[in-house]
């Protein structure tokens, strides 16, 4: 019996002549989940999109075949290829919001897909198929739910809607592109279990494109490791994680912080007891519109320490961090910085307060103007806070770039011309150029591959030591918490349920909620249940 998906000697190159896939071959049988892993630029995303018949601008297939149930997709006409997508091959996006029309109700998305690819079903049969697939992903099929718009759903609900849409037509192959990036650990665990169950029960081949090797261990049947367009390992998941053969694989695994206790950095072990408070939060309530989302929150960050703020989506992490920096003014209580109370609105704060608390976003694109070079983006706060112009301003900016180890040859490029890690370094440089006393880091490593993540964590750790910075590290990744933080504050539904040192909270949690978060966090070292 032939494989469902066969990729034979696939070669892809850019118009410049640079080859980015060097003869990649793989096969996948019905119901098999195959993970494609590697650093940015390894070729994993190119493989996934090429299976869909898509190539990024400036790229072309120069050799090889991709066969789905024996049909070479490169022999298909444009019309046949369009029919193949959504029926035989489905796609689940990293960003579900971008895959759904904001002006269409959830039910309408399912109806349109059914009308296009399931024309042989009558209305009653299609309604039953939609109800079944929604139940498979633990979503309701009520009229109330189907009449909602995408913006009315949580991130986890949106991701499950996209998965349901992909499986509605019962495809042969589904390509999953970083589908858990940005999800909290509990939602991630539910999404992964949903994907695993659907693929195995429906005998669908899944190509799972990801940088998160901890997730791969818990989801994939087989792992293909790519390095700069070459397959360096293609092995059973249990075998690969038990005994990686290639040095590149060993390096990737060695770069992953783990909830089980391993630390790659050591400076976070320094004691901060008795240090003066840089940030003191007492009795803070906050609202999102008319809904209260924070209740009597207390939090303390001492000089030179890093406090991790963790919790599921909707717990209030981002609302609290944005209230601290003044991006959310709908709060009450006391927030003191350096012993002085902060005004609720950022415009009511003095320049030194705005300069000394800097916010680093999950997406560097939110801090860097896409129409400006990264140098010009960094010059803006330098001119604003220090009044420098010309050569003096550029010299100060170059000092910041040097601190984050971003090459001077890159600083006059626009953000889109840089890699994800380079853009995040530029965003950190923009914050560092302000000479802050405190950084608020909001999911700053969630979209980065493991090697780049390790570099950024090491960079932040070094800057914290050299620049005498305090940090509030907002994250859903408890393994990263183990790596970077001194103390942890756990939020649930806007309330603090647990605080303490990293080791105390992660090794001996007191709250049931914290124990559940830990149980849902993927680990390279935890024993997995038998599931294959």
UniProtKB/TrEMBL annotation:
Gene Ontology molecular function, alphabetical = ATP binding; ATP hydrolysis activity
Q: Does the keyword Transport apply?
A: yes
Q: Which Pfam families match?
A: ABC_tran, oligo_HPY
Q: Which UniProt keywords apply?
A: ATP-binding, Nucleotide-binding, Transport
- Identify the CDD domains for this entry: ABC_NikE_OppD_transporters (cd03257)
- Cross-referenced SUPFAM superfamilies, in alphabetical order? P-loop containing nucleoside triphosphate hydrolases
Q: Which PROSITE patterns match?
A: ABC_TRANSPORTER_1, ABC_TRANSPORTER_2
GO process annotations (BP): peptide transport; transmembrane transport
Q: Which SMART domains match?
A: AAA (SM00382)
Which NCBIfam families does the UniProt record give?
PRK10419.1
Q: How is this protein named in the record?
A: ABC transporter ATP-binding protein
């Amino acid at each position: 019996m032939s494989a469902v998906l066969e990729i034979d000697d696939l070669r892809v190159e850019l118009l410049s002549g640079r080859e980015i896939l060097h003869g990649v071959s793989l096969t996948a049988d019905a119901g098999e989940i195959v993970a494609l892993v590697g650093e940015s630029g390894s070729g994993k995303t190119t493989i996934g999109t090429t299976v869909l018949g898509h190539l990024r601008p400036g790229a072309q297939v120069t050799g090889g075949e991709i066969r789905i149930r024996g049909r070479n997709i490169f022999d298909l006409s444009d019309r046949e290829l369009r029919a193949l997508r959504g029926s035989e091959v489905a796609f689940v996006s990293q960003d579900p919001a971008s895959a759904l029309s904001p002006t269409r109700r959830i039910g309408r998305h399912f109806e349109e897909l059914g009308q296009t690819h399931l024309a042989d079903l009558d209305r009653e049969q299609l309604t039953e198929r939609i109800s079944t697939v929604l139940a498979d992903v633990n979503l309701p099929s009520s009229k109330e739910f189907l009449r909602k718009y995408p913006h009315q759903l949580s991130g986890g609900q949106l991701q499950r809607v996209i998965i349901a849409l992909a499986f509605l037509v019962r495809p042969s192959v589904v390509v999953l592109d970083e589908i858990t990036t940005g999800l909290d650990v509990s939602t991630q665990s539910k999404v992964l279990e949903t994907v695993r169950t659907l693929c195995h029960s429906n005998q669908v081949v899944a190509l799972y494109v990801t940088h998160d090797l901890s997730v791969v261990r818990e989801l994939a049947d087989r792992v293909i490791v790519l390095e700069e367009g070459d397959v360096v390992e293609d092995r059973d998941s249990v075998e690969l994680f038990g005994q990686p053969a290639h040095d590149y694989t060993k390096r990737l695994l060695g770069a992953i912080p783990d909830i089980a206790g391993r630390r790659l950095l050591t400076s976070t072990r320094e004691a901060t007891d008795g240090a003066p408070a840089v940030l003191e939060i007492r009795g803070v309530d906050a609202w999102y519109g008319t809904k209260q989302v924070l209740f009597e929150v207390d939090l303390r960050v001492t000089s030179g320490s890093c406090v991790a703020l963790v919790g599921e989506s909707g717990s209030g992490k981002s609302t609290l961090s944005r209230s601290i920096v003044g991006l959310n003014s709908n709060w009450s209580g006391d927030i003191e910085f350096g012993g002085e109370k902060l005004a609720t609105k950022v415009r009511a704060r003095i320049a030194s307060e705005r300069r000394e608390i800097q916010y680093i976003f999950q997406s560097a694109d939110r801090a860097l103007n896409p129409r400006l070079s990264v140098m010009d983006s960094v010059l803006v706060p330098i001119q604003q806070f220090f009044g420098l112009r010309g050569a003096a301003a550029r010299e100060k900016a170059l000092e910041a770039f040097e601190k984050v180890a971003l090459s001077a040859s890159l600083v006059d490029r626009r953000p889109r011309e840089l890699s994800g890690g380079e853009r995040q370094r530029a965003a950190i440089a923009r914050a560092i150029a302000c000479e802050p006393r405190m950084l608020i880091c909001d999911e700053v490593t969630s979209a980065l591959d493991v090697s780049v993540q390790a570099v950024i964590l090491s960079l932040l750790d070094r800057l914290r030591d050299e620049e005498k910075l305090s940090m509030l590290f907002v994250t859903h990744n408890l393994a990263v918490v183990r790596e970077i933080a001194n103390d942890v504050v756990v939020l649930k539904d806007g309330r603090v349920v647990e605080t303490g040192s990293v080791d105390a909270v992660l090794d001996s949690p007191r709250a049931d909620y914290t124990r559940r978060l830990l149980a849902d966090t993927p680990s390279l070292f935890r024993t997995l249940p038998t599931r294959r």
